Amino acid sequence: MSPNHNKNIFKQIFTDHWAEFRKKYPRYSTEYYENVINKMLGCGDTENGFMAYRCLSCGEVKKVPFSCKSSFCLSCAKIYTDKWVEYISKTLFTGMRYRHVVLTVPEQFRKWFYGNPRLLDKLMKTGHAFFQEVTSHWLKKEVDVGSIVVLQTAGRSGSYNPHLHIICTSGGITKDGQWKGFGFIKFELLHTKWQYYLLNMLRENVRPKEIEEEIDRCWRKYPKGFVAHIEKGDVPQGGKGLAHYLAKYVVSPPISLRRIVKYDGRKVKYWYNDHVTGKRIKEEVDALTFIGRMTQHIFPKGFQREM
User: How much is the pTM?
Assistant: First the structure.
């Protein structure tokens, strides 16, 4: 596969099958999704704007097309990431010790978040409230913690897997203005507290008759709580180093160009590293399935994926 072909293969899949996909799945047949996809497809096309440079010696004019700078465009992913890093780095304090926490949602509850920005927003707010409670409980003192909560919906295979990445301070400020830090927090506390916070949030925000039984089953099925992971040791200190660290987890597109192995006009073959085994898995799906796996991670217009 030539480098140029690899660069355009993502666009080609959508060029060939987007109309068919929208017809089969009317949920995506909206002006908003159409604009997102067209923006990606038009990236690098001079018809959508360009800069012109003229050689003062020979008079030759060279046109350099504008890029779309969209997070959904694989060619522009780095540009989007760099802007995000610049924005986030301004909110971090150089010299502050931070921790990276990952909070997951059990598979049976993920359907409630699909296409529900209100519930996704509640999930992010619950993540912050959870860690503030965990830190206060561990330090035996009520504190206010600093955190950046970022929502990620893509699993490694492209599946819909909403989860949170939280960069948080290693401690908090007490009511009398004193700093109290921690060296570690037991995983057992993280697991049980996250289960409590997530299930209570779902019970309060999803229609009771449809979710109450599932919540009750979860209390019995997971007596040790849900998966809540805190990375061992400190993450890079505040500033751009930390922002770059976080960006690789949360603002990258659901797939990178190098992971698309083959497209024959009908099927797409790509690979991902399995989270449990660490082994590389190759998967081949039809083009419509592939498009669905990618577009389901487009956030609604105006939705802020971090707080």
Answer: 0.82
